[in-house]
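The instructor's notes for this session suggest beginning with a concrete chain rather than abstract definitions. Hand out the sequence below and ask the class to guess, before any prediction is shown, which regions might be ordered.
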Amino acid sequence: MTRSEILEKTKAVILDCFPELADTELTEDTVINTDTAIDSMGFVLIICKLEALFDVRIPERQWQRLSTLGDVADAIQKRLK
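After discussion, reveal the predicted structure:
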């Protein structure tokens, strides 16, 4: 799976969890907590759904380092290999 496909699926999960962001442009540079106002519980929900979707496990200690959509896509891509 390409990084672009991962990024698109990540965006879809975010919009599924937070439909009010439908009018927000989500790019790989979007900072999840500040640009979208998603709080820490929302972020946990997104990560859990992405782990299930991609059948990967992102260690909790790494979650703090994931700030942009690109960071999340990179973390998932790394675990898919």
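Then share the key points. The CA atoms of residues 28 and 69 lie 5 Å apart. DSSP finds five helices and no strands in the chain.
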